[in-house]
Design goal:
By secondary structure, the protein is of the alpha/beta class. The chain has 13 helices and 11 strands. It is elongated and about 80 Å long. It starts with 12 loop residues before the first helix and ends with a strand.
Length: 331
Protein backbone atom coordinates (compact mmCIF):
# COMPACT_ATOMS: atom_id res chain seq x y z
CA UNK A 1 0.00 0.00 0.00
CA UNK A 2 1.47 3.34 -1.01
CA UNK A 3 2.08 5.95 1.64
CA UNK A 4 -0.67 8.49 1.85
CA UNK A 5 0.35 12.10 1.24
CA UNK A 6 -0.63 14.49 3.97
CA UNK A 7 -4.12 15.74 3.05
CA UNK A 8 -5.09 19.37 2.82
CA UNK A 9 -8.21 18.68 4.86
CA UNK A 10 -8.82 16.48 7.87
CA UNK A 11 -9.13 12.83 6.77
CA UNK A 12 -12.39 11.05 7.50
CA UNK A 13 -13.61 7.46 7.55
CA UNK A 14 -14.57 7.90 3.90
CA UNK A 15 -11.01 8.98 3.11
CA UNK A 16 -9.68 5.77 4.64
CA UNK A 17 -12.33 3.72 2.84
CA UNK A 18 -11.26 5.16 -0.52
CA UNK A 19 -7.56 4.52 0.20
CA UNK A 20 -8.02 0.96 1.42
CA UNK A 21 -10.78 -0.04 -0.99
CA UNK A 22 -13.01 -1.06 1.91
CA UNK A 23 -16.44 0.07 2.95
CA UNK A 24 -16.88 2.88 5.47
CA UNK A 25 -18.56 0.48 7.91
CA UNK A 26 -15.68 -2.00 7.65
CA UNK A 27 -13.14 0.77 8.24
CA UNK A 28 -15.05 1.99 11.28
CA UNK A 29 -15.28 -1.48 12.78
CA UNK A 30 -11.61 -2.18 12.06
CA UNK A 31 -10.58 0.97 13.94
CA UNK A 32 -12.70 -0.20 16.89
CA UNK A 33 -10.93 -3.61 16.84
CA UNK A 34 -14.11 -5.51 16.08
CA UNK A 35 -13.01 -9.18 16.24
CA UNK A 36 -15.34 -9.98 13.33
CA UNK A 37 -12.97 -8.03 11.07
CA UNK A 38 -9.91 -10.02 10.00
CA UNK A 39 -6.75 -9.08 11.89
CA UNK A 40 -4.87 -8.34 8.67
CA UNK A 41 -7.64 -5.95 7.60
CA UNK A 42 -7.56 -4.20 10.97
CA UNK A 43 -3.79 -3.73 10.68
CA UNK A 44 -4.14 -2.37 7.14
CA UNK A 45 -6.81 0.14 8.18
CA UNK A 46 -4.85 1.29 11.23
CA UNK A 47 -1.72 1.79 9.14
CA UNK A 48 -3.70 3.87 6.65
CA UNK A 49 -5.17 5.89 9.52
CA UNK A 50 -1.72 6.52 10.99
CA UNK A 51 -0.24 7.59 7.66
CA UNK A 52 -3.16 9.84 6.90
CA UNK A 53 -3.10 11.47 10.33
CA UNK A 54 -6.68 10.35 10.95
CA UNK A 55 -8.20 11.26 14.30
CA UNK A 56 -11.76 10.31 15.33
CA UNK A 57 -14.25 13.14 15.58
CA UNK A 58 -14.74 12.99 19.34
CA UNK A 59 -17.97 14.97 19.22
CA UNK A 60 -19.35 12.60 16.59
CA UNK A 61 -18.23 9.56 18.53
CA UNK A 62 -19.96 10.85 21.63
CA UNK A 63 -23.20 11.50 19.74
CA UNK A 64 -23.19 8.02 18.20
CA UNK A 65 -22.01 5.96 21.15
CA UNK A 66 -22.25 8.08 24.29
CA UNK A 67 -18.48 7.59 24.72
CA UNK A 68 -16.01 10.43 25.08
CA UNK A 69 -12.80 8.45 24.41
CA UNK A 70 -11.35 10.43 27.32
CA UNK A 71 -9.69 9.19 30.48
CA UNK A 72 -9.22 11.82 33.16
CA UNK A 73 -6.38 11.83 35.67
CA UNK A 74 -7.44 13.89 38.70
CA UNK A 75 -4.23 14.97 40.34
CA UNK A 76 -3.05 17.47 42.90
CA UNK A 77 -0.34 19.14 40.82
CA UNK A 78 1.32 20.63 43.92
CA UNK A 79 2.68 17.12 44.56
CA UNK A 80 5.62 16.82 46.91
CA UNK A 81 7.68 14.51 44.71
CA UNK A 82 9.66 15.90 41.83
CA UNK A 83 8.65 14.25 38.60
CA UNK A 84 5.45 12.67 39.95
CA UNK A 85 3.09 14.47 37.60
CA UNK A 86 5.14 14.25 34.42
CA UNK A 87 6.33 10.68 35.01
CA UNK A 88 2.84 9.41 35.78
CA UNK A 89 1.36 11.25 32.80
CA UNK A 90 4.09 9.82 30.58
CA UNK A 91 3.36 6.28 31.76
CA UNK A 92 -0.40 6.62 31.24
CA UNK A 93 0.03 8.25 27.83
CA UNK A 94 2.39 5.49 26.74
CA UNK A 95 -0.36 2.90 27.24
CA UNK A 96 -3.20 5.04 25.86
CA UNK A 97 -1.23 5.79 22.67
CA UNK A 98 -2.26 2.41 21.26
CA UNK A 99 -5.95 2.94 22.09
CA UNK A 100 -8.68 5.41 21.01
CA UNK A 101 -8.46 7.11 24.39
CA UNK A 102 -7.01 10.53 25.16
CA UNK A 103 -5.70 11.64 28.54
CA UNK A 104 -6.95 14.81 30.22
CA UNK A 105 -5.25 15.93 33.45
CA UNK A 106 -7.63 17.66 35.85
CA UNK A 107 -5.90 19.51 38.70
CA UNK A 108 -7.66 20.03 42.01
CA UNK A 109 -7.17 21.71 45.35
CA UNK A 110 -6.75 19.61 48.46
CA UNK A 111 -9.65 21.23 50.30
CA UNK A 112 -12.31 19.60 48.08
CA UNK A 113 -11.20 16.39 46.33
CA UNK A 114 -14.81 15.45 45.55
CA UNK A 115 -15.48 18.53 43.39
CA UNK A 116 -13.67 17.46 40.19
CA UNK A 117 -15.07 13.92 40.39
CA UNK A 118 -18.64 15.21 40.64
CA UNK A 119 -18.09 17.66 37.79
CA UNK A 120 -16.68 15.01 35.46
CA UNK A 121 -19.37 12.45 36.27
CA UNK A 122 -22.33 14.86 36.17
CA UNK A 123 -21.22 16.29 32.81
CA UNK A 124 -20.15 12.92 31.34
CA UNK A 125 -16.72 14.28 30.46
CA UNK A 126 -14.81 10.99 30.59
CA UNK A 127 -15.23 7.26 30.12
CA UNK A 128 -12.84 6.50 32.97
CA UNK A 129 -11.25 8.30 35.91
CA UNK A 130 -7.95 7.91 37.75
CA UNK A 131 -7.67 9.46 41.22
CA UNK A 132 -4.78 9.76 43.66
CA UNK A 133 -4.25 10.54 47.36
CA UNK A 134 -6.70 7.86 48.42
CA UNK A 135 -8.20 7.75 51.90
CA UNK A 136 -9.08 4.59 53.85
CA UNK A 137 -12.80 5.39 53.54
CA UNK A 138 -12.69 7.30 50.28
CA UNK A 139 -15.99 8.95 49.38
CA UNK A 140 -14.86 9.39 45.77
CA UNK A 141 -14.72 5.60 45.43
CA UNK A 142 -18.24 5.21 46.79
CA UNK A 143 -19.51 7.98 44.52
CA UNK A 144 -17.94 6.52 41.36
CA UNK A 145 -19.24 3.03 42.14
CA UNK A 146 -22.75 4.38 42.78
CA UNK A 147 -22.63 6.29 39.48
CA UNK A 148 -21.24 3.36 37.48
CA UNK A 149 -18.17 5.19 36.19
CA UNK A 150 -15.10 3.00 35.54
CA UNK A 151 -12.11 4.13 37.58
CA UNK A 152 -8.78 3.20 39.12
CA UNK A 153 -7.07 4.65 42.17
CA UNK A 154 -3.42 5.39 42.85
CA UNK A 155 -3.45 3.81 46.28
CA UNK A 156 -5.60 1.32 48.14
CA UNK A 157 -8.66 2.00 50.26
CA UNK A 158 -10.26 0.21 53.19
CA UNK A 159 -13.92 0.97 52.56
CA UNK A 160 -15.12 -2.57 51.84
CA UNK A 161 -15.44 -1.96 48.09
CA UNK A 162 -13.42 -3.93 45.56
CA UNK A 163 -12.02 -1.64 42.86
CA UNK A 164 -9.12 -1.29 40.44
CA UNK A 165 -5.94 0.21 41.89
CA UNK A 166 -2.18 0.40 41.75
CA UNK A 167 -0.17 1.06 44.89
CA UNK A 168 3.39 1.31 46.16
CA UNK A 169 4.00 -0.68 49.35
CA UNK A 170 4.77 2.15 51.75
CA UNK A 171 4.77 -0.20 54.72
CA UNK A 172 7.71 -2.08 53.20
CA UNK A 173 9.40 1.22 52.25
CA UNK A 174 9.28 2.49 55.84
CA UNK A 175 10.53 -0.84 57.19
CA UNK A 176 13.45 -0.93 54.76
CA UNK A 177 14.30 2.70 55.48
CA UNK A 178 14.54 2.12 59.25
CA UNK A 179 16.63 -1.02 58.70
CA UNK A 180 19.08 0.92 56.51
CA UNK A 181 19.46 3.56 59.22
CA UNK A 182 20.00 0.86 61.84
CA UNK A 183 22.73 -0.61 59.64
CA UNK A 184 24.44 2.81 59.73
CA UNK A 185 24.36 2.79 63.53
CA UNK A 186 21.65 5.44 63.86
CA UNK A 187 19.63 5.27 67.09
CA UNK A 188 17.11 8.12 67.18
CA UNK A 189 14.92 8.28 64.09
CA UNK A 190 12.53 11.01 62.90
CA UNK A 191 9.81 10.29 60.33
CA UNK A 192 8.82 12.87 57.71
CA UNK A 193 5.58 11.10 57.06
CA UNK A 194 2.65 11.36 54.63
CA UNK A 195 -0.28 13.61 55.52
CA UNK A 196 -2.64 12.10 58.11
CA UNK A 197 -5.91 10.84 56.70
CA UNK A 198 -4.45 9.26 53.58
CA UNK A 199 -4.21 5.51 53.11
CA UNK A 200 -0.47 5.50 52.68
CA UNK A 201 -0.07 7.42 55.96
CA UNK A 202 -1.46 4.36 57.77
CA UNK A 203 0.75 1.98 55.80
CA UNK A 204 3.88 4.07 56.36
CA UNK A 205 3.26 4.58 60.07
CA UNK A 206 2.71 0.86 60.62
CA UNK A 207 5.90 -0.09 58.79
CA UNK A 208 7.92 2.59 60.60
CA UNK A 209 6.62 1.71 64.09
CA UNK A 210 7.12 -2.03 63.62
CA UNK A 211 10.67 -1.54 62.34
CA UNK A 212 11.61 0.88 65.13
CA UNK A 213 10.44 -1.70 67.68
CA UNK A 214 12.15 -4.61 65.92
CA UNK A 215 15.47 -2.75 65.68
CA UNK A 216 15.34 -1.46 69.27
CA UNK A 217 15.59 2.17 68.15
CA UNK A 218 14.05 5.37 69.52
CA UNK A 219 11.55 7.49 67.60
CA UNK A 220 12.02 11.24 67.62
CA UNK A 221 8.46 12.68 67.61
CA UNK A 222 7.50 14.99 64.73
CA UNK A 223 3.76 15.55 65.30
CA UNK A 224 3.79 18.91 63.53
CA UNK A 225 5.49 17.69 60.34
CA UNK A 226 4.41 15.81 57.26
CA UNK A 227 5.35 16.04 53.58
CA UNK A 228 2.60 18.62 52.94
CA UNK A 229 4.29 20.94 55.45
CA UNK A 230 5.80 23.98 53.77
CA UNK A 231 9.49 23.74 53.04
CA UNK A 232 10.17 26.84 55.14
CA UNK A 233 8.53 25.11 58.12
CA UNK A 234 10.70 22.04 57.54
CA UNK A 235 13.82 24.22 57.57
CA UNK A 236 12.62 25.92 60.75
CA UNK A 237 12.09 22.50 62.30
CA UNK A 238 15.78 21.70 61.82
CA UNK A 239 16.76 24.84 63.67
CA UNK A 240 14.51 23.98 66.59
CA UNK A 241 15.83 20.44 67.09
CA UNK A 242 19.51 20.72 66.31
CA UNK A 243 20.41 21.92 69.80
CA UNK A 244 18.18 19.40 71.57
CA UNK A 245 19.91 16.78 73.71
CA UNK A 246 17.96 14.04 71.95
CA UNK A 247 18.26 15.42 68.39
CA UNK A 248 17.65 12.73 65.78
CA UNK A 249 20.59 11.18 63.97
CA UNK A 250 18.47 9.47 61.33
CA UNK A 251 15.52 10.48 59.18
CA UNK A 252 12.99 8.66 57.02
CA UNK A 253 11.44 10.92 54.37
CA UNK A 254 8.50 10.16 52.09
CA UNK A 255 9.24 13.03 49.69
CA UNK A 256 12.23 14.21 47.70
CA UNK A 257 11.43 17.92 48.09
CA UNK A 258 10.90 17.54 51.83
CA UNK A 259 14.25 15.75 51.97
CA UNK A 260 15.94 18.64 50.20
CA UNK A 261 14.41 21.18 52.60
CA UNK A 262 15.46 19.11 55.61
CA UNK A 263 19.03 18.57 54.40
CA UNK A 264 19.34 22.25 53.49
CA UNK A 265 18.24 23.29 56.97
CA UNK A 266 20.54 20.84 58.73
CA UNK A 267 23.50 21.92 56.62
CA UNK A 268 22.83 25.56 57.52
CA UNK A 269 23.18 24.46 61.14
CA UNK A 270 26.57 22.91 60.44
CA UNK A 271 25.42 19.31 60.04
CA UNK A 272 26.75 16.99 57.31
CA UNK A 273 24.69 14.21 55.74
CA UNK A 274 26.43 10.86 56.03
CA UNK A 275 28.46 12.08 59.02
CA UNK A 276 26.26 13.80 61.62
CA UNK A 277 23.05 12.22 60.36
CA UNK A 278 21.72 9.89 57.68
CA UNK A 279 18.49 10.17 55.77
CA UNK A 280 16.59 7.62 53.71
CA UNK A 281 14.26 9.11 51.10
CA UNK A 282 12.04 7.99 48.30
CA UNK A 283 13.64 8.65 44.93
CA UNK A 284 11.19 9.43 42.15
CA UNK A 285 13.42 11.52 39.87
CA UNK A 286 16.97 11.24 38.50
CA UNK A 287 17.90 14.50 40.21
CA UNK A 288 18.35 13.26 43.78
CA UNK A 289 21.73 11.51 43.31
CA UNK A 290 23.08 14.81 41.94
CA UNK A 291 21.79 16.75 44.97
CA UNK A 292 23.63 14.76 47.67
CA UNK A 293 25.06 11.35 46.68
CA UNK A 294 25.40 10.40 50.37
CA UNK A 295 21.61 10.38 50.84
CA UNK A 296 20.22 6.82 50.99
CA UNK A 297 17.55 6.40 48.31
CA UNK A 298 14.79 3.86 47.68
CA UNK A 299 13.14 4.11 44.27
CA UNK A 300 9.44 4.64 43.57
CA UNK A 301 8.71 4.43 39.84
CA UNK A 302 5.86 6.79 38.93
CA UNK A 303 6.11 5.95 35.24
CA UNK A 304 5.45 2.31 36.15
CA UNK A 305 2.53 3.48 38.27
CA UNK A 306 1.14 5.41 35.30
CA UNK A 307 1.31 2.35 33.06
CA UNK A 308 -0.35 0.16 35.69
CA UNK A 309 -3.13 2.69 36.31
CA UNK A 310 -3.79 3.00 32.56
CA UNK A 311 -4.12 -0.77 32.24
CA UNK A 312 -6.37 -0.84 35.31
CA UNK A 313 -8.79 1.85 34.13
CA UNK A 314 -8.93 0.37 30.62
CA UNK A 315 -9.77 -2.97 32.18
CA UNK A 316 -12.50 -1.35 34.27
CA UNK A 317 -13.96 0.27 31.14
CA UNK A 318 -13.92 -3.14 29.43
CA UNK A 319 -15.88 -4.64 32.33
CA UNK A 320 -13.14 -6.93 33.63
CA UNK A 321 -13.27 -8.32 37.17
CA UNK A 322 -11.76 -5.55 39.31
CA UNK A 323 -9.91 -8.11 41.43
CA UNK A 324 -7.74 -8.75 38.36
CA UNK A 325 -7.02 -5.00 38.07
CA UNK A 326 -5.24 -4.56 41.40
CA UNK A 327 -1.45 -4.29 41.70
CA UNK A 328 0.93 -3.63 44.58
CA UNK A 329 4.64 -3.08 43.94
CA UNK A 330 7.27 -3.37 46.66
CA UNK A 331 10.40 -1.17 46.78
Amino acid sequence: MAKIDEPAIRPTLRTLAEVTGLGVSTVSQALRDNPEIAEETRKRVKLAAQQAGYRPDRAGVRLRTGKTNVITLILNTDGTSMGLVEQMVYGISEILSTTPYHLVVTPYELNDPMAPVRYIVENRLADGIIVSRTQPDDQRVRYMVENHIPFATHGRTNCGIEHAYHDYDNEVFAKQAVEKLADRGRKNIAHLKPPPGLSYYDHSMRGFANAIHAQGLAEFPTPQLNIDTSYEEVRNFTRSIIEANDAPDGYVSQSELTTMALVSGLEEMGQTVGKDFDIVTKQCSPFMPWFRPSIIMINEDHKLAGRALAHAVLGAIAGKDVKTLQSLVAP
